Amino acid sequence: MSDIPQERRVLTAIPGPKSVELQARRTAAVAAGVGSTLPVFTARAGGGIIEDVDGNRLIDFGSGIAVTSVGASAEAVVRRASAQLADFTHTCFMVTPYEGYVEVCERLAELTPGDHAKKSALFNSGAEAVENAVKIARAYTKRTAVVVFDHGYHGRTNLTMALTSKNMPYKQGFGPFAPEVYRVPVAYGYRWPTGPENAGAEASAQAIDEITKQIGAENVAAIIIEPVLGEGGFIEPAKGFLPAIARFAKDNGIVFVADEIQSGFCRTGQWFACEDEGIVPDLITTAKGIAGGLPLSAVTGRAEIMDAAHSGGLGGTYGGNPVACAGALGAIETMRELDLNARARRIEEVMKGRLEEMRAKLPNGAVIGDVRGRGAMIAIELVKPGTKDPDAAATAALAKACHAEGLLVLTCGTYGNVLRFLPPLVIGEDLLNEGLDILERAFATL
Ligand code: PLZ
Q1: pLDDT in tens, 51-81
Q2: Using CA of residue 283, residue 285, residue 290, residue 296, what is the dihedral sign?
Q3: Which of 97, 136, 182, 299 has the fewest CB atoms inside 10 Å of its own CB, making it the most exposed?
Q4: Taking CB atoms and a 6 Å cutoff, what residues make up the pocket around ligand 1?
Q5: Class at the top of the CATH hierarchy for domain 76-337
Q6: Do 170 and 156 contact (CB within 8 A), yes or no?
């Protein structure tokens, strides 16, 4: 890890004067469509801290959206990526291959669920991995339809916009979208009309009914689901839902794809979140946490499915870039050495304990409707007191109050009313608790 002191430090207003200056240059030069949660410009980052250009040190509860699980300057990532940079930056794996790519695919075969023969293909972004999973599933099944779920998020490219459920900001004005994409209900326990205990069985029955009656199971190439829905609000499908959908896929020759781009690589206290209910997906998409901050993504799955695409059918100039592969090998080494699954589970214990305490302490009709998530993928859903009406304004106000105190938090959710916590798994427990203290004080500002 870089030598940044693991201490919060607020020296200026946030953003500070240097960030404000850079923001002006940014506004003039960077397209308006690219937003930022907090216009604080980064100077260095590592462990649980982001240091900005004004010398402020923010506690990081975002990990660059679940990416820097090993920290933003993990020793093994920096060491391996630097060595690779000095050797060669690129040849293109489709021109002359290199060992790092193969080694990442070997690691993926070991770490992903199931003991069947597996193969992988590497890409750059999460969206690209999801697109390729669809290509592979279509080539294998010779079918076209793709099933996704309410509140699902899979990316911003044309096909993945079609797969993503939320219109604003992801899709508005950007259509037309790819055809043959169908969306069905998911078991959102907190909001399921007959309660969380019925959500798994009822939602899976509804989803299956819609697939069979409206699409025809025999037309479906792939069912794609996030085992914990990320951008949609850290929704853990109610118990029983995922196994029922996976079983249905299996019975009908449909490729079951787990999109673990956000939930994978120790984030939820397991290598992959689908392990919690013993799910063995046919294909699994990974990105984000895989490479300690370098751009890399993968599709991994049953060898016979992965081999269905003809030679030359998959690829891309940069897919599995050697520096990104070296970073991934460093990140995986770090996860194993530091047992980051155990760290994630400890983070859950601390966070959920504190968040439940906060909820109990809030006056009657508390705004915290739900505390949920697994490992270091934890969220609170904020509602108008005494109701389940989403309170996006309170969520934004809380985030703002945290930012002002030097705690970086992110929001998410279809209704914009979920505050999510994704600290690097290597964050110190003191910083974790200090961040939660700041959040607790932020409630007083509501
Ligand atoms: N699948 C499950 O979480 C990316 C999106 C941030 P890319 N989530 C963060 C934003 O607003 O763009 C994501 C995901 C899941 C796919 C993706 C897409 O991954 O690397 O952003 O393309």
Answers
A1: 999 999 999 999 999 999 999 999 999 999 9
A2: positive
A3: 97
A4: 65, 125-127, 130, 153-156, 226, 230-231, 259, 261-262, 287
A5: alpha beta
A6: yes
